[in-house]
Write the structure tokens for this entry.
Amino acid sequence: MDGARLRQLRFEQPVDQPDELHLPRTWGTNTVILTVTDDAGNTNTCEATVTVQDNIDPILDCPTPVTLSADADCEAQIPDFAGALSTVNCGPVTVTQVPAAGTIITVGTTTVTVTATDNSGNTATCTTTVTVEDTTAPTFTCPANVTVAANANCMGSIPNLVVLVNNESDNCTANPAVTQSIAAGTLINSDVLVTITVTDGAGNSATCDVLVKVIDNTPPSAVCQNITLQLDLTGSVFISADDVDGGCSDNCGLSSLSISQTNFTCQNLGPNTVILTVTDDAGNTNTCEATVTIEDNIDPILDCPAPVTLSADADCEAQIPDFAGALSTNNCNNATITQVPAAGTINHGRHDDGNGHGYGQFGQHGYMHDDGNGGRHHGADVHLLRPT
């Protein structure tokens, strides 16, 4: 130092303020000239080396975790996190990441390390995650509606519809699970909808409904019974299907019974074959034959002739009259009138027998009215008078 009082120290580098030394943002070694001036104006100089170093790490805004949906190949690409840099203190910064942007990853969670490096080699790192999820439902071809036959109890069995599912596919699951809402083998007595569900390993599912129809293809049981009926006074009789039903039945229920003939008259006397048709609720039919025997057990009705008195002829004889025209009523109009003795029979006269009888013959003559089913006898008195 000079014996005189030191007056001034001065740097030759430009300064913004007189009491501070500012150097340009130049990394590395910088030479600075120091000039010393005393009160007498004497000066001297020396050089100093100033080394500038950047020891401050870059600052990152670490990316938030990202969730992506897997594509048709069950893959996704790592996003570009280059924009994660927030602020730096000096110079440019390079941002890198591992795995690199665009890297193909599959379902699951991948950790990505993001690194920021400045020109001085200062670095900052952080980690984030990229999660790939399978959000795509499987696809499949739904089975067509099916029909099942009703059993003896009018119940149908749910078929195994799982095996009827075709073309099941998923972007991430090789063999998605296939289920049905009503188990195969379940008995049903009416039409139902069964839901088919196809589910992948991530729980995504697709559904469809299959209509299962119960069909009764079994004809009813037709059982006939033979019957015997009598005609009424009008010569007719009516029957219904129930009269010849011998116990018809069906697994699901009968709808109707019908017969081929319901009205019988005198023209149907004797055995007649009728057909009983049985129809169930599904329209299935069956038939059986019954024998309907028609009988006429009603006797004919006669208006019995009044007694007849005849005069004996010269031979003291007379002929029995013909009573065939006696009025009769018969339900079938098929009566035959006969008489005994027959019409024209000679009736011989005689004298008083001394017992108080008059001269002539008194006889009881019968005739029969027969309808072919057993008739009845009637009698008519014929008196023979003494000739005059």
In short: Residues 244 and 337 are 37 Å apart (CA to CA). Residues 241-244 form the longest helix (4 residues). The domain at 227-295 is CATH 2.60.40 (Immunoglobulin-like). The chain has one helix and 33 strands.
